[in-house]
Write a structure and sequence with these properties.
Blueprint (H helix, E strand, L loop, with lengths): L12 H15 L8 E2 L2 E5 L6 H7 L7 E2 L1 H13 L3 E9 L2 E8 L2 E8 L6 H10 L10 H17 L6 E9 L3 E9 L5 E8 L6 H5 L11 H4 L6 H16 L7 E9 L5 E9 L5 E9 L5 H5 L12 H16 L7 E9 L4 E9 L5 E8 L6 H5 L12 H13 L3 E10 L6 E10 L3 E10 L3 E10 L8 E8 L4 E9 L8 E11 L9 E14 L4 E15 L6 H10 L2 E4 L2 E8 L10 E11 L9 E13 L5 E13 L42 E12 L9 E13 L11 E12 L2 E12 L9 E5 L4
Parallel strand pairs: 2-5, 6-8, 9-11, 12-14, 15-17
Antiparallel strand pairs: 1-3, 4-5, 7-8, 10-11, 13-14, 16-17, 18-19, 19-20, 20-21, 21-22, 22-23, 23-24, 24-25, 24-26, 26-27, 27-28, 28-29, 29-30, 30-31, 31-32, 32-33, 33-34
């Protein structure tokens, strides 16, 4: 028989040869090692891996019986470590030799061309996928690393970013990895379209979004950079806007995001279906309310006869859930079930509650505090571990941590404990912010010579929760040394302790012959907590004040010298009360703050001056909307003498500037000296401030950068003068508030509304660290 002849094409020949070779190998019996008892195990090829790691991973030991199955298992176990590129076993008599070839390790990670990120951020991103210095190098990880870097750039709207990796072998079986990045320009949103809306104009709906097509603040807010997370948040805002106005069946039908070929411009199109507007016809309770239906009914904010409002429904459901939490029911479920009548466009709401079971808190986990110690946070918690779950105490704990002022964000989440029916964990997450400020300065003048200034103020020194402040000024005519510190938990019960020491020499005029004031003193104060929001302060101190006579000495100071002499000593005792109900100490939007203090220098302690000095301050914050806040601040001070001698002039109050009446020079309000026409303060003061706080234009909902409009009024009065509204100064203006890395910064430009002849006007004023 004749067989036809076939010609193999060129590309088939290697395939056929490979198949024949594989068949030959399969037909050849595998080489087997006769079983034997292992007398010794040796390892060859190790460079950095410890021999103990190899021995601990193998299922074979000296004295064991070796066979091929155990050998194969040993090879698989060593490969599973991920430390070796090759593993083989050799038998020399009764000695088992393990020959390995280690993977190279990563010696260094370098990034070139990176401007958008801190390299530490990218290093951490690669570490999360397993690529880091000191770890074994795997080529498969290199591809994942490039994709991860691209993903990081895509999250910043840099879709044109390209990443090229380079592997350079180094000594001792290591490799240096270098990533060269071509970032390109960020993709910007060129257009946002909303299609299908009939009730509300497109411009109104677009103004709800944080994403936009760019404005003059886009360099700061980056609002014109596309982000899927931001778009989802904007869509949720859009949905909430309709649901809060009765459009129960509103939905986003589709969303298209189109990228231009140059990867620099994006177009977003949102298709919506508004549906009909519904009116609430009734609200009913169903389910188990623990026999407290009347209590829960008082929490309902939904009003029959009004348009359906999803915000009111969510608020009611949240209030129900929190009320269940007060009784320990952490797993309570409250559902709002709408019964829709489309014929009349009415909806009845049924609030169905199932309290489930009571739970207690197993553990409180804290995350995000890279500098602040755990104990600083934990001592503010009022929900304790192994205690029954209490919603009120959890919210109080969150607010107390936020009021510390150490964190930009504070959040608490509740998670169930797997495998248990009555336990939960609380996960408290914080985001830290800078809590200190540093001031350095130097100057030289012919009058004062060389002067050095140094100041440090740290409200969370070394992450301990203690505050520490030091100020130094070494000029010849204005020398200052101030030291103060506060331990908010001097005792475990929350009693605070504060020290203040100071030595000041101040000369109001640069003239070498001008008068000066010298003061030294110190004080010790304790804060005694009465409740979660109320604290009583008690303390005492010593003050020594010397008036060095010279030119330009005000008449009031001359009278003081006549009454008390050039040097006078006081031993003031202090008593104060503080209450803080604000939602945040850093950027408050609701709540109030109250502070009252009394300073008494009695005669029985032996000081030359006897007086009583009281101060009262009250602040209140009213949230108008999510973005706008109205704030009120009032400040009243009153001092008078005890005995026959007058009120000491160095205890006077001063007015004008930030924290008082803006638009007037700081310290310029009140009685003036007849000769110098300068204010020397007064024994009484009154300030009233109003502010309307709003987001900075273009900054969206960023609470750290805000603008405000204000109206101030007040004045300072002498000891024999009454507080008369006819004498009040007032000012109106605009300001900027920014939580900067150096601390809270406030800038104000004011126009005096009511002023008198001789008033010193100062339109632009600036300060770091003030609240009003």
């Amino acid at each position: 028989m004749l067989f036809p002849r076939f010609r193999l094409s060129t590309w088939l020949r290697p395939v056929v040869l490979l198949a024949l070779w594989s068949a030959l190998l399969m037909a050849t019996p595998a080489r087997a090692v006769d079983p034997f008892t292992i007398r010794d195990i040796q390892v060859e090829g190790l460079q950095r891996v410890e021999p103990g790691t190899v021995f601990a991973s193998m299922p074979l030991r000296i004295g064991d019986r070796y066979d091929d199955d155990k050998g194969g298992a040993s090879i698989r176990a060593l490969f599973a470590l991920g430390l070796f590129t090759d593993v083989r076993l050799e038998v020399k008599g009764e000695v088992l030799v393990v020959v390995v070839e280690e993977r190279p390790t990563v010696a260094s990670l370098d990034f070139n061309g990176v401007r958008e990120f801190d390299p530490a951020v990218l290093t951490q991103a690669l570490k999360d996928i397993g690529l880091a210095e000191g770890r074994p190098f795997d080529k498969a990880l290199l591809d994942r690393a490039e994709q991860e870097l691209k993903r990081q750039y895509i999250n910043r709207s840099l879709y044109a970013a390209e990443v090229v990796s380079t592997v350079t072998p180094t000594e001792r079986n290591r490799v240096a990895l270098s990533f060269t990045v071509s970032e390109g320009e960020p993709a910007q949103i060129s257009e946002i379209r909303i299609v299908g809306n009939k009730v509300y104009p497109e411009s109104t709906l677009r103004n709800l979004f944080d994403l936009d097509t760019g404005n003059w603040m886009s360099w700061y807010t980056k609002s014109n950079r596309y982000s899927r997370a931001k778009l989802n948040a904007d869509l949720e805002t859009l949905r909430s806007y309709y649901l809060a106005r009765g459009y129960l069946e509103f939905r986003v039908d589709s969303t298209q995001v189109a990228m231009a070929p140059n990867k620099q411009e994006m177009t977003i199109t949102i298709n919506v279906i508004e549906g009909e507007r519904f009116i609430v016809s009734a609200v009913r309770l169903a389910g188990n309310y623990l026999g407290r239906e009347d209590e829960f009914k008082t929490l309902v904010t939904i009003r029959p006869g009004e348009a359906y409002n999803a915000d009111q429904v969510a608020e009611t459901v949240q209030a129900f859930t929190e009320h269940f939490g007060r009784f320990g029911y952490a797993f309570a479920r409250v559902n709002s079930q709408p019964e829709i009548d489309r014929a009349t466009n009415r909806v009845a709401l049924v609030l169905n509650a199932e309290p489930a079971r009571r739970a207690y808190v197993r553990r409180v986990n804290i995350a995000g505090n890279t500098r602040t110690r755990d104990e600083v946070i934990r001592r503010e918690l009022r929900q304790y571990e192994s205690a029954w779950y209490d919603g009120d105490k959890i919210r109080m704990s969150r607010n107390r941590v936020d009021r510390l002022g150490y964190f930009e964000q504070v959040g608490i989440e509740t998670t169930e404990v797997p495998g248990t029916a009555d336990q939960v964990d609380l996960n408290l997450t914080v985001k830290e912010r800078p809590t200190g400020s540093l001031t350095l300065g130097a100057g030289y003048s012919s009058n004062e010579g060389l002067g050095l200034q140094f100041g440090i103020n740290q409200s969370n020194a070394f992450g301990s929760g203690n505050s520490l402040g030091i100020q130094l000024d070494t000029s010849d005519y204005n020398r200052t040394v101030v030291f103060n510190t506060t331990n908010p938990y001097f005792t475990q019960d929350g009693v605070s302790r504060s020290f203040d020491l100071y030595d000041r020499v101040s000369r109001p005029y640069t003239d070498i012959d001008a008068y000066s004031l010298e003061s030294q003193g110190g004080s010790l104060r304790f804060g005694l907590p009465l409740s979660e929001r109320d604290t009583i302060y008690v303390g005492g101190g010593i003050e020594r004040t010397t008036i060095v006579e010279g030119d330009y000495l005000p008449t009031a100071y001359e009278r003081h010298i006549d009454d008390f002499g050039r040097t006078s000593t006081a031993y003031p005792l202090t008593l104060g009360w503080g209450r803080d109900n604000r939602d945040s100490a850093l950027v408050p939007t609701e709540g109030n703050y109250l502070r009252a203090s009394l300073e008494w220098s009695p005669s029985f302690l032996g000081g030359e001056v006897q007086y009583l000095r009281s101060t009262y301050q009250y602040q209140h914050y009213f949230p108008l909307t999510k973005q706008y806040t109205f704030a009120l601040n009032s400040d009243l001070g009153w001092g008078f003498s005890l005995g026959d001698r007058p009120y000491p002039v160095f205890k006077n109050y001063y007015g004008g500037g930030l924290g008082s009446v803006r638009g007037f020079e700081p310290g310029s309000l009140g009685p003036r000296d007849e000769d110098t026409d300068r204010s020397y303060g007064g024994a009484k003061k009154f300030n009233l401030n109003f502010e309307l706080q709003a987001p900075f234009p273009g900054a969206g909902n960023d609470r750290t950068l805000r603008v405000y409009a204000f109206y101030d009024m007040g004045n300072v009065y002498g000891p024999n003068e009454s507080i008369d509204p006819q004498d009040w100064r007032s000012g109106v203006g605009l300001g900027l508030s920014w939580i900067s890395p150096m601390g809270p910064l406030r800038l104000a430009y004011a126009w005096p509304v009511r002023k008198f002849d001789g008033d010193r006007i100062q339109h632009l004023q600036f300060q770091i660290g003030t609240s009003f």
